[in-house]
Amino acid sequence: MGSGSDMVNFNILSPGVAPVLSPRLGKLALAGRKSICTPHYLPLTTRGAVPHLSHDVIRDHTTVGSVYVGLEDSQRNFPLTQQRPPGLRSVIEKEKKHGGPPLYKTPAAPHESALRKFISAPEEFLLIMGARRQPPVACPTPNSPTSISILTSVGFRQLDAEEYIQATRTLRPDIIVGMADLILGRQAGKKRCEKMVDRTHAHTRDATERLYGSSKVEERSKTAYFAPILPLENTQQLLYLEELQDELRDFISGLALYESASLSIIPEPLGTLPRLLFNEPATPHEVLKEIALGADLLTLPFLVKSSDAGMAFDFAFPPPSKSSEQTARPLALNLRSPTNATDLSPLSENCKCYACRNHHRAYLNHLLNAKEMLAWTLLQIHNHHVLDNFFAGIRESIKNGTFEQHADSFHKVYAPAFPEQTGEGPRLRGYQLSPGGPNQPPRHPKVFNRLDDAFDKYAESKSSLGTPDAGSDELESRGFAEKKDH
Amino acid sequence: MSTNTPRKPMPSALTFDLHAKCSTTKARASTLTLPHGPVPLPIFMPVATQASIKGLTYDQLKQTGCMLCLNNTYHLGLKPGQSVLDAVGGAHKLQGWDRNILTDSGGFQMVSLLKLATITEEGVQFLSPHDGSPMLLTPEHSISLQNSIGSDIIMQLDDVIATTTPDRVRINEAMERSVRWLDRCIDAHKYPEKQNLFCIIQGGLDLELRKKCCAEMVVRDTPGIAIGGLSGGEAKEEFCKVVDTCTGLLPEEKPRYVMGVGYPEDLVVAVALGADMFDCVWPTRTARFGNAVTKNGTFNLRHISYANDFRPVDEDCPCACCRPTEKGGLGITRAYIYHLAAKETVGAHLLTIHNVHYLLSLMGSCRQSILEDRFPAFLREFFRNQYGDKSNYPAWAVGALRQVGVDLMED
User: Fold this and answer.
1) Do B125 and A480 touch (CB under 8 A)?
2) Where among B252, B281, B310 does a domain terminate?
3) What does UniProt give as GO cellular component (chain A) (predicted)?
């Protein structure tokens, strides 16, 4: 037995055998970490932080016990050969002088994870690291046979497979998602698909060999390996899948999938491994579909997107019985809507989350209008809480054998999509935009122009006033200001 | 302007208990009991401009020890607006904060938006920066808004002009108008039994005008007194003289609030000069720019030198952000703040927690040292930590403290 697969303990609780293509209940346990009952969602981070949730808020007001970290979020320095934006030169030179990404220099004892130390994640959190953040931005530069293209905070660069292995050894996350050669944002041609398989196959073989191949137990990495399954047909990656079942089986502790269709091509000998699905379901309906196909851990980019958009989730599983009227229930409440301006009810009725216990819709409406950061913090707390309950309901329902029936009624009761966003969210970050060419228009209109306009208007209106010391009656008669009743 | 006209009696919704006075300086330790609980003085009040301390939950704010925070009348008047405030039942209910709130009058925004504002006897005419529509803010309107907000301390509308204005006639006019507006505010104030109206001493940097203003306002017997029109770019020596002059004329049994002060050294010197309360957006704003305010000075953690610095933001600081994980804290490092600052909101939240905590605990240590009558020693230690060598001490602070009997230069 190799050292890979016994680091992660994954028990499939229900159903007893593990047929492909059915919802399943499991428990993912690693020594020293909070165990995760599956199906569950894996909270995504940006620069090692769950967006808008500071560490004490996570500890005090959420049940988050695992996080996904993209290595590219901590990469900054470019290789010298690569072309750089001119303004960044000084930053890069400075960083070079200071020698590479600070993340790698985090002091940590041999038994500790440097990544955990760097992002100040609690000891009991399950840390899963991948090369790219989730969802990844498509890079204009192609992957190479030995590297993949990543987006750092100062631009695109290549991440060598070798550097990724080194990073795994240095940072010691609990689980590493193996490097995959993926094509983002476009359909790959037949030739390119073959390359994807060959390269990913090579990455997986090399990495597992380098991490776990040593004859000395103490030299083997303690990080568990989730092998990627490519978003391709079964037949296109047959050789790779076979090797995963045979030579590599002992080294891998789980599978990373990039589309729900891959759930149906997992070979039976790999069926007992936990399945982490990296895709972008747009709604809870799609989440249910993925779970129905046997996904264990899911990534849900719509969570933070909804919080940013001012949406408070309002769905439950099993769903409430359909009321007599025909309209579908909305999946979320748009708190930006002016109808909430004086509404003192909680974000969603009967919710026990911190935001609902302490605040009301009117406050959230005000915070969103005022663009106060607390709006997104409170929405993140609430939306995580709703999802916690949603997944707990799903697990209960699988246990009781009522999942399919409840999923059916969920589709009937709830609207098929989230409500339309109105107004602006927080300032957009580079990773939230697809990279365009040069000379892109600004992301947001200039805020201060309005004030300049107002100043012009004021200068005009002032010139038509009798005297600068005009009383308010005079001003009112000129339509300059409204006198309010006191 | 006369001090003899009969006035509406001024009820008070606070009690002020003076516990101790420094035997050397003019510093005082007291407790101010407001409708939403007791507030230990001296105190720094963090600013929740639009009914939220930037990014912090009210539980996080409570954990910093905050008992009293600010809301801004001008901003709340624009968003969510008076009708919403009335419908919701005030700012406490709006933001879910059950401790005390102080609101300014909106007058200070007239300085910051002076280009757009004209002040007449009636009030302040200005343009809404949100939609450009013209507005008139009168003392009555300001008080009416603050009554709707329901803050525990409300401020009179004052005629604020740039502190450094050279026009003495205008300064005098502003001072006298502020007194007249105080009378209008007192008349307009609907709930003196549950909201405390503070007057604001004006008079620019002219000590004679300040004295005159103190005399006029003290007889109006408001529950508390603010010293306004400072922190507008004046020399620190001038600032100290004004505070010193005013506190010398103010009644001992009332809280004294110096508006818009937030730098740690300004706070401790103003405390030594007899002031009790302070507010400033600087600690929270500067946190968003990646600046950590610490006992050893202010550091910009976005500087490359912190990229590989794995120490806590402020060593030995007991705030949630700096405290090590073994002691129940978050164990955040400078390197991680460097990594997050100005990129993720979480970086701003963490530094905001630290900065607010630092200033609150600085005032807490001030208070303790006054209670134990070792405030001069506290001052020496504070300046030693902030500046290291004595040659770095700011001359204005050394001068001001000498006036109240503490010589930082002697050992």
Assistant:
1) yes
2) B281
3) cytoplasm
